Structures are given as structure tokens and as C-alpha cells.
Amino acid sequence: MLTSRSLVLVAFLAAASSSGLHAQASTEDLPTGDEVAQHINARDEGQWVSRTLRMEMIDRRGGRRVRETRGFRRYYGDEKRTVIFYESPANVKGTGFLTFDYRDRDKDDDQWLYLPALRRVRRISASDRGDYFLGTDFTYEDIKLETKVGLDDYTRRTIGRDTLDGHEVYVVEETPVDEDTAKELGYSRVVRYVDAEIWMTRKVEMWDIRGNQLKTIHISDIREVQGIWTAHRMEVENHKTGHRTIFTFADVDYETGVPDDVFTQRALRRGR
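Above: the chain sequence. Below: its structure as C-alpha cells.
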């Protein structure tokens, strides 16, 4: 019987043998996987942003749940702080999620979740980052990174150039740096399609630690807001469950400052 460790190793070998499937061109003269990742993370996101976020969760039978939230993000040098406040429906109103994303690779990011029914703030452990976020098909790590990438969790290589929805993209294969990271994130392999002009990811495919295709994320309605390229729609499909999640962003504002006290556990408790 295969152990969990063996399953991850099998998935790594499968990923290595199948990586050529997505390559549409010679990798000569293409940027390396690390160069693509660095370009992604160097994109201008502004010092701060406020926006609304509509979350739609759709099951395989078409049943739909909708959540309306308000979100804020601010950079403090290389440190990024993000907070999401749930505004409706009534049964989730007051829920809040706060994350501190540190540039220092030796320091674990901090994440907190406030659930009004429990009346307490719960810290999310770094080992929980592969768990699904509040009924969606995005993980806590997906939510934290949004359209950026975790530089230290994967090794990368560019496997080709392709066209997606009329846009030239680089196709980059990502493999977790070790088995523990694969199990923590929940992915044994990731293939990312990155816009070659604006360095924004337009599609992501993920495989689970057994080597089975798990999820596909489509990032669309990308347009400039106040001079910054901004994704207004993110849709993820879970191929195992048939469940889908759609995030729709609106009222995006990069110019109005966001105060420091929004990014506190006290703000989580009071719902802003």
C-alpha cells in the first residue's frame, strides 16, 4: 500500500514526465520560470486599495450561495497587509479575515479569522494555508497571494509560449520544493499561464498530491483602474467536486488612503 510520502513522490514523477504537454514552442529565448515569477510580483499594485468583493459559491446541482464583502490592502515597505470584512448575508455578517504577508522568508506570515458566532479571533497556522477558505474553492494561501506567487514554495521552469483568449502567454510549470510543502499547499504541480505583456496570470491549473487534476482558475475582465492593471473576475472550478467559486471585484480605488487601524484584530472584532 502506498504511503502519503510515496504518493507525493509518484505525483512528482508524473509531473516531470508530463510537463511537455503544455509546451507550444521552444523554450529557447524565453524568460526563465523564476524571471516570470519575479515580473509577476513586481507588478504595480499601488500602496493601498479598497474594493468590494462578491463571492458566489455554486455546487454541482446549480445551488448558489452569495457573500458580499469589503476588502482593503496596504503595503508597508515589503510587508503586505490585507483584510476582508463580510457584510451580507446576515448569517455571516461580521466575519473577518486579516493577513500580514512578510517578505522575510524565515518568518511565517500571520493570518487571523474572526467568526462572530464564536466571538473570538482565531489565528490561522501556517500549516493550515492549504485549507479551503470559508466554503470557497480558494485556499487561505490563494486568498493571501491573489494574483501574486509564492517565490519560495516552488521551483519553476518555462515550458512554452501559447495564446489564451487572444493574449500571448508564457506557460510556466511549478513544482513544490519538497514533499512537506506539497502536502501543506495541497498541490503536487501547478501550470500557470502568464500574460507576456502585463505579467498578470490569466489561468492556473493545479494537480493534487496524488497527481490528479484538482482545480482550474480563470482570471478575467482585466483592465486598468487609475493606471494599474486590475483583475475584476476570478473563477475557480474544483474538478473533483464539481463546485465552483466566482469572485467579482468592483469599486476598486487605489487613490484613497487606507488607515492603519483597519489592519488590526480589534477592527476584525468590530467589523471595521
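The chain has one domain: 4-270.
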